[in-house]
Amino acid sequence: MEDYMVKLFKSLGHPVRLKIVRKLGRERLCVCELQEDVEFSQSNLSQHLKILRDSGILSGEKEGLKVMYQVKDFRVLEMLDMAEGIVETHLKRAIEGR
After folding, report:
1. pLDDT in 10s for each residue of the chain, 98 residues
2. Architecture, CATH, for domain 2-72
3. Which residues pair with residue 63 across a beta bridge?
4. SS (H, E, C) the chain
5. Where along the chain do its domains lie?
């Protein structure tokens, strides 16, 4: 259980992978659509997608020549929203000097 949790958090611990998960949100996209907002090559993006798939965050389904990716469990998005709230609170406190 702990190993899986570590793998889950490690896979989310990269800005590009966070951006991918956020972009997928509640829609299915192919690599070409994901690549529009990422400054990396398709092969680099594919490596990030593999990490997210291997950790169980994303699933990919082949449709014709494309693989369509989606978030497997939307609780991951809820977890990211909670983490964002925690970070915002810490930043506000730091600005206020608490």
Report:
1. 898 899 999 999 999 999 999 999 989 999 888 888 777 777 889 999 999 999 999 999 999 999 999 999 999 999 999 999 999 999 988 888 87
2. Orthogonal Bundle (1.10)
3. 66
4. CHHHHHHHHHHCCCHHHHHHHHHHCCCCEEHHHHHHHCCCCHHHHHHHHHHHHHCCCEEEEEECCEEEEEECCCHHHHHHHHHHHHHHHHHHHHHHCC
5. 2-72
